[in-house]
Amino acid sequence: MCGRFSLRLEPQVIRHELDRYNLPVNEWIDQDQFVPRYNIAPRSLAPVIRHSSPKNSSRLGMESLEDSSHQLVMQTMKWGLVPHWSKYEDKSLNTINARSENLVSGGGMWNSLRGRKRCVVVCQGYYEWLSKGKDKIPHFTKPKSGHLLLLAGLYDSVELQDRTDTLWSFSIVTTAASNEFAWLHDRQPVILSTQKDIDQWLDTSSQRFLVGMVPKEVGKIGMESSSFILPISVRKDGIEAMFSKQKQAQATSATKSTSTMKRKHDQVSPKSTKILATKIEDSSDSDIEILEHHPPFAKKKKI
């Protein structure tokens, strides 16, 4: 789960940091609505990165894949996704997180979003609470390098009956915690650690669903393949493949570092500030550090 995150950087600094990931953001929509905060909670406004889309698509909650531009835009959105079919915002709906398992299975409200409306959530790190008896101790997870942490997300837009403007909102995709994070919580956000991860997540070209959800190659006369009758989600370029590759990478990383981590964990003092430093990828820029750290509102909000 990911219930709080931090982004206490000014817009110009955020843009500069994104250059490290080769993310040329041409425009920041509603930049003036973003307020830098150390403690961003659900229903707050925060920036995400997405592909630009036709201006007339928001009314239908749809995006035309044929007409969509490959240009990237950043947009300030509300955290807690409101589906495009909504007439009013249902504040009892818990959509701050989207489980990757549900995206793969293709059921529920995420089915219409997983292949078309993906985004990258920009933050410096996220908060998670460690349960110890009756206590819940907040920890802050961030890149050891101090650079931005980019998370996989989904977004949607809707015109509600009690609003005059279009509401844009997003959800953070979560997955089962890897061995490095399992001691803290059984869930973690999907971290986009490399340029390849980011490109693959934002590339929705492999998710062009037709009736029956078969691949587009079936339309080519003379083409023959058993994959034509398989769901797109299980193809090598599908969404299931992406999450499978990430789990495999986590497992490989965990195998390499299990013994080292055990020694570090055994040596940690309860009063120590630095709880854990793990390496997610072979690049030093992807080092993740978890701090025992109380955000401005230490008590976790029940969602």
From TrEMBL:
Skewed-composition ranges (Low complexity): 247-260
GO molecular function: lyase activity; peptidase activity; single-stranded DNA binding
Region (Disordered): 247-273
Gene3D superfamilies in the cross-refs: SOS response associated peptidase-like
BP GO terms, sorted: protein-DNA covalent cross-linking repair; proteolysis
Keywords recorded for this protein, A-Z: Covalent protein-DNA linkage, DNA damage, DNA-binding, Hydrolase, Lyase, Protease
Domain of life the protein comes from: Eukaryota
PANTHER family named among the record's database cross-references: ABASIC SITE PROCESSING PROTEIN HMCES, DC12-RELATED
UniProt record similarity statement: Belongs to the SOS response-associated peptidase family.
Protein name as catalogued: DUF159-domain-containing protein
Source organism per UniProt: Lentinula edodes
